[in-house]
Specification:
The protein is built from nine helices and ten strands. The protein is an alpha/beta fold. It has one domain: Rossmann fold. Strands 3, 4, 5, 6, 7, 8, 9 and 10 form an eight-stranded mixed beta sheet that branches. Helix 1 packs across helix 9, helix 6 runs antiparallel to helix 9 and helix 8 packs antiparallel against helix 9. The radius of gyration is 18 Å and the shape is globular. It starts with 5 loop residues before the first strand and ends in a 5-residue tail after the last strand. The protein binds S-adenosylmethionine. S-adenosylmethionine (SAM) binds next to strand 4.
């Protein structure tokens, strides 16, 4: 197994010196957009950035009494933040083998357990968690898959437990249908993932229909690839790493510029949203 070295700095800034080999085997022109970004050295891969993540974690109020499941931890940035809150247990369920390997390296020596598998079928015991959350993973699923994942979140949550998400949403809430289709098609073509966001009220309905009472929500602009956001998310050294990788790798540059162009084109209609919902406190 390949060994990677890590530079430890402040808070969640534990950054791989070499980007993890995520997306290995995918043709550079067809690689899923989040792995293109990861290969460029970007570690924060969610639409509202680290700031919306902090707000979501505060709203989830994770404490040393909690047992936590994270769906799709990716490169483990939020996992490291959550582990600082010293939960009783933390499980990360990630489907990409290289990311799971990177997470096991990165979180070695903590109580984190990484499950290589699907969020919709985690294999974890029912009611094992008081908190379940996932970022930038539901938006890339069909409606049926979204339903399967929230059903699994509910199964994992003990009565009264909290579920948090941080995803893409359409704006305004009543965005015309033809724009939904146009944006979905354009993003899916460029990012090579079937991107299917919902509007704010659709996300809220999705929670309610699955027995989760929304207790908190917030939104942020979708500025994933804007220079100021990259600086805030990755720090100065991380941003320089991304800039260097983009400058020296024409294939990465081509893909990242194309994604940024799309995000800019639809900046009025795509935002980041985070919701926290609570499962009823009895076993319904
Ligand atoms: C855009 S990245 C987000 C990573 C991380 N959550 C973040 O916000 O930085 C999407 C992640 O979702 C994972 N993923 C997508 N569908 C999944 C599923 N059904 N089960 C587990 N992981 C999944 C991918 O492997 C990838 O790590």
């Amino acid at each position: 197994m390949m060994q990677r070295s890590y530079v430890h700095s402040s808070e969640e800034n534990i950054s791989p010196v070499n980007p993890p080999l995520v997306g290995e085997g995918q043709h550079p022109d067809k690689m899923q957009g989040h792995w293109v970004l990861a290969r460029a050295g970007k570690r924060v891969l969610r639409p509202g950035g680290i700031e919306l993540t902090r707000q979501m974690l505060d709203a989830l109020a994770i404490s040393p009494q909690d047992s936590v499941v994270e769906f799709a931890p990716g490169l483990g940035i939020t996992a490291a933040m959550v582990l600082k809150r010293r939960p009783v247990a933390y499980w990360g369920v990630e489907r990409e083998p290289a990311a799971a390997e990177c997470l096991r390296d990165r979180l070695a020596g903590t109580k984190a357990e990484i499950v290589l598998g699907l969020a919709e079928q985690s294999g974890l015991p029912g009611a094992c968690a008081t908190v379940v959350y996932g970022e930038a993973m539901l938006s890339m699923q069909s409606q049926e898959q979204k339903n399967r994942i929230v059903t699994e979140a509910r199964r994992l949550l003990a009565p009264g437990g909290r579920y948090g998400i941080h995803e893409l949403c359409y704006s305004p809430d009543d965005l015309l249908d033809h724009l939904h289709h146009e944006i979905q098609a354009a993003l899916s073509k460029e990012i090579h993932v079937g991107v299917q966001p919902l509007s704010r009220s659709e996300w809220i309905r999705f929670f309610e229909q699955n027995g989760l009472k929304v207790t908190w929500s917030a939104e942020a602009p979708m500025h994933l690839l804007q220079p100021q956001r990259v600086l805030r998310d990755e720090g100065l050294r991380g941003s320089l790493r991304v800039a260097f990788n983009v400058a020296t790798n024409p294939k990465l540059r081509h893909r990242i510029f194309a994604m940024r162009q799309l995000f800019t084109k639809y900046r009025e209609h795509l935002r980041a949203i985070s919701l926290v919902g609570q499962r009823e406190s009895t076993n319904a």
